[in-house]
Amino acid sequence: MNNSKMSFIFISLISIIFFTSCVANNSSVQHPSSLYKSNDYALYKKGKENSFSQLARTQLGDEKWVWKIEDANEIEILSDSALVQVPLKDQNIGGLFENGYQSVPILCYHKFGPDRTSPLTMPPDIFNQQMKYLKDNGYRVVSPADLLDFLKYRRQIPRKSVLITIDDGYKSIYDIAWPILKKYNFTATVFVYTNYVGISKKALTWDDLRELKSYGFSIGSHTVSHADLTKKNPDEKPDDFYHRITEELLLSKKIIDKELGQDTIGLSFPYGRQNRNVLKLAEAAGYKIAVTVDRGSNPFFTNPLALNRDMILKKEMKTFISRLHTFNNVSLK
Ligand SMILES: [Zn+2]
After folding, report:
1. Phi, psi at 26, each rounded to 5°
2. Which residues of the chain have pLDDT under 70?
3. Ligand 1 centroid to residue 162 C-alpha, Å
4. How far apart are CA 215 and CA 173, in angstroms?
C-alpha cells in the first residue's frame, strides 16, 4: 500500500470515530452504510454482506462497475475486516499514476480452427488458453467506445483493459471464437469488409453480425473490398484513386450503419496500411477509432486513428503474454 493510501485510510479512521455513532443512529441510512463518505470516496467495512459486487450494485448503480472498486483496493490483501474504498468519481482519467501511465493493448485475430500451419488461424485450444489467461489475471475486455473515452481523456477505464479484435469476418468467429469468449464473459470487436459478408459458408452473415452485436460485440469496418488504401493502381488517375479510397471508407460505413442500425466508429485498415491522406479520409468519413498492425500498446496520447495493434500469430502463450503491456513505469514526480 502506498503512502497516500495509508494516509487516506488513517484520516478516514479518525473520521470514523466522530461519525460512526451518528451514522449508526440514523435510521434513514440505507444498508450497507458507509463509515465515511467524501465527494470522491466512500469507505465501507468489508464483510460477507459487503462484497465488491454488492457494493458496485448498491453504491455505483450497477455490478458492471465492480472493476472500479477492485482497481481502488488491493484485493489480494483485503481480509473480511478490512476497509473498502468505493470511488464515487472517476479516478486516474487517462491512466496517469505517480509511478507511470496506463497503456491499452489491442490484440488482432483472423480465423479460428484446427489448422496449425496457417499463420492467420488460431487453434481453439490455444485461443481458450489465451482467454483463460486474461480472465485469471484480471484483464478486462473493453470496446472501441470505451477506448475512445480513454484516449480522449474523458473517462476512467479498467487498469488492465485490453481490446480483442478479429478481422475480415470469417464464420469461425461465430462458430469457434464466440463460444470460447462466452465462457469467460468476454466480447470482441469484429472488423468486416462488406463485400465478404454472406458471400459463402465461410463468411459471417448480417444476421450473425446482428446476433454478435446483441450479445455485446462491437462491429467495425474493414472497408468494402479489403484493398490496400495506400496503393494506387498503375493506370489510375489521382482523382479516381481519391474517389475509390473515399468510397471504400464511406460506403462500408454506410452499409454497416444501415444493416446494424448503428453509427460505426471503428475501422481496421486492410493490411494495417495507412498514410496521412488515408487518415484524413477516414476521419472525414466519420470514423473515430482506427487500428493498424504496428506493434505496441496504446497510452492515452496515441492518435485514435492510428492505433497500435499486435497480431496474435504464434500458437503459444509466451509471446501472447508479452503483448499484454498495460503499464509503463515512469516516475512522474
Ligand atoms: Zn484483413
Report:
1. -90, 105
2. 1-32, 48-49, 75-78, 332-333
3. 20
4. 13
Which amino acid is located at 287 in the chain? Answer: Y
Query: Which residue in 53, 108, 45 sits closest to 298, CA to CA?
Result: 108
Asked if 52 and 91 touch (Cβ cutoff 8 Å), the reply is no
- Total residues belonging to the chain: 333
The DSSP element (H or E) to which 163 belongs, if any, is strand 161-168
Residue pair 166/188 in contact by the 8 Å Cβ criterion: yes
Do 274 and 287 contact (CB within 8 A), yes or no?
Answer: no
Return the SS3 of 44. strand
CA–centroid distance, 270 to ligand 1, in Å, is 5
Helix residue ranges, H only, 176-325: 178-183, 206-215, 238-260, 276-285, 318-322
Residues lining ion ligand 1 (Cβ < 5 A) are: 167-168
Residue 270 φ then ψ, to 5°: -55, 135
What's the 33 CA to ligand 1 centre distance in angstroms? 52
How high is the pLDDT of residue 332?
65
Whether residue 224 contacts residue 285, with contact meaning beta carbons closer than 8 Å, is answered with: no
Q: What is the whole-number distance in angstroms between the Cα of residue 167 and the centre of ligand 1? A: 5
How many angstroms separate the alpha carbon of residue 151 from the centre of ligand 1? 24
Q: Does domain 100-329 have CATH number 3.20.20.370?
A: yes
Nearest to 156, CA basis, from 142, 170, 167: 142
**What pLDDT was estimated at residue 81?**
74
Give me ligand 1 centre to Cα 91, in Å.
36
Q: Could you tell me the distance, in angstroms and rounded to a whole number, from the CA of residue 161 to the centre of ligand 1?
A: 24
* Cα(301) to centroid(ligand 1), Å: 26
C-alpha cell belonging to residue 196:
465478404
pLDDT value, residue 77: 63
Distance from residue 322's CA to the centre of ligand 1 (Å):
23
Q: What is the pLDDT of residue 208?
A: 98
**Domain extents for the chain?**
3-89, 100-329
**What's the CA-to-centroid distance between 108 and ligand 1, angstroms?**
10
